[in-house]
Amino acid sequence: MPNIKLIGVAASRTFRNIWMVEELGAAYTHDPIHYTDPALKTPAYLAINPNAKVPMAVIDGTAIFESLAINIYLAEKFGGALAPSGAEERGLVAQWSLWAATAVEDDLGKWAYNTMFLPEAERDPKLAAECLARVQTPLAVLDSVLAKQAFLVGDRFTVADLNVACVCYRLLPMELADKPNLKRWLHAAWARPAAITARRARGDKV
Ligand SMILES: N[C@@H](CCC(=O)N[C@@H](CS)C(=O)NCC(=O)O)C(=O)O
Asked: What domain range is 158 assigned to?
């Protein structure tokens, strides 16, 4: 039996890893520590994650941070259909995960903060609009790829789809009328039972 511990409140990027372990059907423990908890700055926590952030996972004694890397590690370690098979798929999983983290995440996050999360007086509507406009370019790329294939890697849902769909979580309520392929793929990914469990853990009404 693998020993998997996830650290971080589900209403943080930790929901990405909850989705993954639920896909694997693996038993795990969850420490739902909040990302503002001072315990993240104690020597004991910094020893396993010097970034003082969540999520964090400890898997059979291996401590690993970075939400998307945790998912790739889980896929590689436990195998199954979500795992890449061979060097080519491994490369494509890395490609899509890094692409999401570098081309999409920052702009989508800033848009969400400046439209929803920050107190209204601190929001910057101009920055929100700029970020939303800029992220359309990589999202159009994703839409065009998904016009030609059902999944990002191979002919099945893999950790690449899971990681990119996690980063695109904030797109779920959007109309996406000009990106029908992205919309279809995103909603199919988030309709998976494991994804619904992760959303419910965040408190989403689904
Ligand atoms: N790239 C990291 C980002 C980690 C991150 O920024 N986590 C946030 C919560 S979602 C956090 O812990 N913030 C606390 C802080 O920045 O002090 C990942 O994907 O795991």
From this structure: 86-192
